[in-house]
Design a protein that fits this description.
The structure holds two protein chains of two kinds.
Chain A: E1 3-12, H1 21-31, E2 43-47, H2 59-62, E3 66-69, E4 72-75, H3 80-86, H4 96-99, E5 103-105, H5 108-112, E6 124-126, H6 163-170, E7 178-182, H7 191-195, E8 201-204, E9 210-212, H8 222-226, E10 232-235, E11 240-243, H9 248-251, H10 258-261, E12 268-276, H11 280-284, H12 291-298, E13 299-300, H13 305-313, H14 318-325, H15 328-335, E14 352-355, E15 365-366, E16 369-370, H16 379-382, H17 388-395, H18 400-420, H19 427-436, H20 441-452, H21 456-459, H22 467-474, H23 477-482
Parallel strand pairs in A: 1-14
Antiparallel strand pairs in A: 1-12, 2-7, 3-4, 5-6, 8-9, 10-11, 12-13, 15-16
Chain B: H1 2-28, H2 44-69, H3 71-77, H4 81-111, H5 113-116, H6 121-143, H7 147-163, H8 177-192, E1 216-217
The chains are: A alpha+beta, B mainly alpha.
C-alpha cells in the first residue's frame, strides 16, 4: 500500500442552477490576460449539448485519454513512437475555431465617433487581431438548450438512446436539461502529464494538484490533445500551456478555490481523499463496466488503523489525516456512493466526482397527494426525463448500475425528509424506500444535512498545506521572506 | 583582409554570441524558451508548411554535419558514382522541401491576420535569414553540383581549422561567391540564433522517450529529470 493524499472535489448537479458565477470568478482571477481570453478553466455546460470546446467528448476526433491495447495502458493521441513524427504538427490538436475567437467591443468608438445622424454603436472586435468580427458562436452558445437542433442533438452521450428517447429530449413539453460545471479533474493518472515531451506538467506529491511548470513548457502542445476533458489550454500569445491550478495559492492559505467559494448553489465540496497509489495502473486496466467500482476501491478509509499507519509511514501529516476523516468528498464518494467520476472510460482516474441530477418525472396525484402507491418505488427513475442511459454514458462508462444507485438513494432521502416534515408520505413507506435504496435513516439524515444545510466549513474541509515546511525544505526562510508572492515578475514577451 | 574578417573573425564572434546568450537566456529567462507554435491559431496550412520545412531541414542539416565530421569517409563513399547520385538527389530533395515549406510558412504568416498579431521583429529576421540561406543553398546545389564531395574536400578542412582555433581560410577563398554567401549567412544565423525563437531547437525533448509516464514532484526533493 502506497498511501497518498489528494485534494478532491464533488459537484452536486442536483443543486446546480447554471448561473456561471464560478466561471466568472475564475475568469476574473486567472484568465483575464492576453492569450488567455478564450480560456475557461471553469466552465458550465448545458447537457445535452456539445460543450466547450465543441464536441470535447468525441475522442474519435480528439484522441484524448488512455486506451488499453495488448493489456497495456497507452495514450490514445501520442505514443512515444508517434510523438517523434508528430512533433512538428500535432494532428489531434484543437484549434481556436474549436473553442471560439474571443471578442470585446470597441467601446471607445462611443466616445470618439465623429458627429453623425446616427447613434454610434460599439461593434464586436476580435481580441486576437483587434479587427471587427462577425460573431458566429461563443462559449455557452448552447446555454439552456439554445440552438438545440445543432448542439443538443449532437451530444456524444446520446449514444445508445432509442429514437423515441432522443425525440422526447427535444419535444416542447418534455424538454429537459441540466448543467455540467467542469474544471480540471486533477486526475490520478493524468494523460496530460504523461504526454508532455518536456516533462513540464507534474502532479504535486503532497496534495495531487496537477500543474504546468511554465519555465519548462516548450509549447509542444501534446497535453492539449491528450487531456480528454480538454482542460489544458494553449496560451497563443505566451506560447505556453495553462490549466486550472485549483487556486493552490488560495488553498495554501486555507481559502476555498475561487469557483468553489463563489458557488451560489453551494453545489461544490472539497476535501482530502487518501488513495493507494500502487494500484492505479491495475485499476486503469480494468474493463469499462468495472471501472467506477474499481476507481472507488482505490480510495482508502481514513478511519482504518491499517491505512492510518501506512499513511504515517508515507509521511502524511497528522493534520491531513484528521482533515481526511472529516472530508465531505469521502462521504459522497466512498461512504454513500452517490458521487461518480465523469467519463471514467478515459482512464485518467479523475478526482472530481459528480452527484447525478434527478430530473422531472411524470407524476400523478390522488386526492391532492402524490400517488406513491406504485408497487415499485423507483419506477420514475426509469421514466425521468433525462434517460438513465444518458447519465450512464456521462458518469458510468455506459453502465447504468452505479447511476441508478445514486439516483435511487437521492430519491429515497427526499421522500424520507418528506415523511418527516411535509407528512404527505407515511413513515413506513419512507423507511421501506430507504431500505430498498441501501440507506439507513441515520445516513439519510447525514445526506440531507450535507446536501441542504451544509455550511462553508462542512463543504470545504481544507487541510493545512504546511507551506512553512515546504519553504524550509526548499530554501532558508530568511531568503523566502524577501521573495514572497506568486509566480515570476517578468512579462510574457515572445522573444528577447 | 575582407576574407579574413568574414571567414576568420565572424565565425568566432557568432559562436561566442551563440554560447554566451543561449546559456545566459536558459539560466535567466527559461520561460522564453518555447517553440511559440502558432498551430493553435491556424491548423491546416500549418501542416503543409511546417512539416515539409522541418523534415527537409533535418535532412539537409544531417548532410552538413556528416560532411563536417567524416569528410574522408564521405569522399570514399562518393567514389562510386551511383552513391554520389543518390546522395545528391536526397540533398536536393531535402533542400527543395525546406524551401517550399519555408515559403509556405512565410506566406502563411504574412496572410493570416491572427498569426501576424503574434509575429515579432525577430520572427521576420529569422525568416529573412532562413530564406536567404535556403534559397542560396538550393542555388548552390544546382549551380555547383557534387557538393557532398567538394564540401568534404574544401569546406570541412576549413571548419576543422576553425574548431582547432587555427583558422586557415585558404581552402575556401577560391570558392564561388554563392558558396561564400552561404557560409557568411550561416554565421549570421548562428549569431542571431540565441535572440530568436530558434532556441527551441536546443530544448528538443529526448528524455521523454525513456522517462516514466507520470511525473510527481515532492516538496524538498529534487525534481524528476526531464
Amino acid at each position: 500500500m502506497n498511501v497518498r493524499s489528494q485534494i478532491s472535489m464533488v459537484f452536486h448537479l442536483d443543486k446546480c442552477i447554471g448561473c456561471h458565477t464560478c466561471s466568472v470568478a475564475c475568469k476574473n482571477v486567472w484568465t483575464d490576460r492576453k492569450g488567455a481570453e478564450y480560456m475557461w478553466w471553469n466552465n458550465v455546460e448545458t447537457k445535452p449539448g456539445t460543450g466547450y470546446p465543441t464536441l470535447w467528448e468525441d475522442q474519435e476526433e480528439y484522441q484524448g485519454g488512455w486506451e488499453v491495447s495488448d493489456g497495456k495502458l497507452q495514450l490514445k493521441s501520442t505514443s512515444k513512437k508517434k510523438i517523434v513524427f508528430n512533433i512538428f504538427h500535432n494532428p489531434h490538436m484543437p484549434s481556436i475555431d474549436d473553442y471560439y475567437e474571443p471578442w470585446t467591443y470597441n467601446y471607445e468608438h462611443l466616445f470618439d465617433a465623429p458627429a453623425s445622424d446616427d447613434q454610434p454603436v460599439a461593434r464586436p472586435i476580435s481580441q486576437i487581431t483587434g479587427e471587427l468580427v462577425q460573431i458566429e458562436s461563443g462559449p455557452n452558445w448552447d446555454d439552456d438548450l439554445g440552438g438545440s437542433p445543432v448542439y443538443a442533438a449532437n451530444d456524444p452521450n446520446l449514444e445508445g438512446l432509442s429514437e423515441e428517447q432522443r425525440e422526447q429530449l427535444s419535444s416542447v413539453e418534455r424538454l429537459v436539461y441540466f448543467y455540467l460545471p467542469r474544471i480540471c479533474n486533477h486526475c490520478l493518472n493524468p494523460s496530460c502529464v504523461a504526454s508532455c515531451p518536456s516533462g513540464a506538467l507534474y502532479k504535486r506529491g503532497q496534495d495531487g494538484i496537477v500543474l504546468v511548470d511554465q519555465n519548462r513548457c516548450r509549447a509542444w502542445r501534446s497535453c492539449v490533445a491528450a487531456c480528454p476533458y480538454k482542460k489544458v489550454y494553449y496560451n497563443w500569445f505566451a506560447g505556453k500551456a495553462e490549466k486550472c491550478i485549483l487556486c493552490y495559492p488560495r488553498l495554501e492559505t486555507g481559502q476555498a478555490p475561487a469557483c468553489f467559494h463563489s458557488c451560489v448553489g453551494r453545489i461544490r465540496y472539497l476535501g482530502v481523499l487518501l488513495y493507494d497509489a500502487s494500484r492505479i495502473e491495475e485499476v486503469a486496466l480494468k474493463k469499462d463496466a468495472e471501472l467506477v467500482e474499481a476507481h472507488r476501491s482505490l480510495i482508502l478509509d481514513p478511519n482504518d488503523p491499517e491505512v492510518i499507519s501506512a499513511a504515517r509511514a508515507a509521511g502524511i501529516d497528522e493534520a491531513v489525516l484528521e482533515s481526511a476523516r472529516k472530508s465531505p468528498v469521502f462521504k459522497f464518494v466512498k461512504e454513500w456512493k452517490m458521487a461518480l467520476p465523469p467519463h471514467i472510460e478515459y482512464r485518467t482516474m479523475p478526482m472530481l466526482f459528480y452527484v447525478p441530477p434527478l430530473s422531472p418525472v411524470i407524476s400523478s396525484r390522488v386526492n391532492g397527494l402524490v400517488d406513491f402507491d406504485s408497487t415499485e418505488f423507483f419506477h420514475d427513475i426509469d421514466e425521468s426525463r433525462v434517460p438513465v442511459r444518458f447519465l450512464a454514458n456521462l458518469f458510468g462508462a455506459g453502465e447504468e448500475r452505479e447511476v441508478r444507485y445514486a439516483l435511487r438513494k437521492q430519491k429515497a432521502v427526499r421522500w424520507w425528509r418528506r415523511a418527516r416534515t411535509a407528512g404527505d408520505v407515511d413513515q413506513e413507506t419512507a423507511l421501506r424506500m430507504l431500505a430498498e435504496a441501501d440507506c439507513t435513516p441515520e445516513q439519510a439524515e447525514a445526506i440531507y444535512q450535507l446536501t441542504s444545510l451544509c455550511t462553508f466549513e462542512d463543504r470545504f474541509v481544507i487541510p493545512p498545506m504546511h507551506r512553512e515546511q515546504v519553504i524550509e525544505q526548499a530554501q532558508s526562510p530568511q531568503q523566502a521572506r524577501s521573495s514572497a508572492g506568486f509566480g515570476f515578475t517578468t512579462g510574457t514577451a515572445r522573444s528577447i | 583582409m575582407f576574407d579574413t574578417l568574414l571567414f576568420g573573425v565572424l565565425p568566432y564572434v557568432a559562436m561566442f554570441t551563440f554560447f554566451l546568450v543561449t546559456i545566459q537566456r536558459y539560466r535567466q529567462r527559461s520561460f522564453s524558451y518555447s517553440s511559440l507554435s502558432s498551430q493553435f491559431l491556424e491548423n491546416r496550412r500549418h501542416f503543409w508548411s511546417l512539416v515539409p520545412f522541418h523534415y527537409g531541414i533535418l535532412v539537409v542539416l544531417a548532410g552538413h554535419i556528416v560532411a563536417f565530421l567524416f569528410p574522408r569517409e564521405l569522399l570514399a563513399f562518393n567514389s562510386r558514382p551511383l552513391r554520389l547520385y543518390i546522395l545528391e538527389t536526397a540533398a536536393l530533395t531535402g533542400g527543395l522541401m525546406t524551401l517550399v515549406g519555408l515559403t509556405a510558412a512565410v506566406f502563411r504568416r504574412w496572410t493570416t491576420a491572427k498569426i501576424r498579431t503574434v509575429t515579432t521583429v525577430s520572427d521576420w529576421l529569422v525568416y529573412a535569414l532562413l530564406t536567404i540561406q535556403v534559397a542560396n543553398g538550393v542555388y548552390v546545389a544546382v549551380a555547383h553540383p557534387w557538393g557532398s564531395s567538394w564540401f568534404a574536400a574544401s569546406v570541412s578542412p576549413y571548419l576543422w581549422s576553425l574548431a582547432r582555433l587555427t583558422p586557415d581560410i585558404t581552402t575556401i577563398t577560391p570558392l564561388p561567391w554563392g558558396v561564400k554567401l552561404h557560409i557568411i549567412n550561416a554565421y549570421l544565423l548562428i549569431g542571431f540564433f540565441p535572440f530568436t525563437r530558434l532556441v527551441h531547437v536546443l530544448v528538443i525533448p529526448n528524455v521523454y522517450l525513456w522517462r516514466k509516464p507520470q511525473v510527481v514532484r515532492w516538496p524538498g526533493r529534487p525534481y524528476p529529470a526531464s
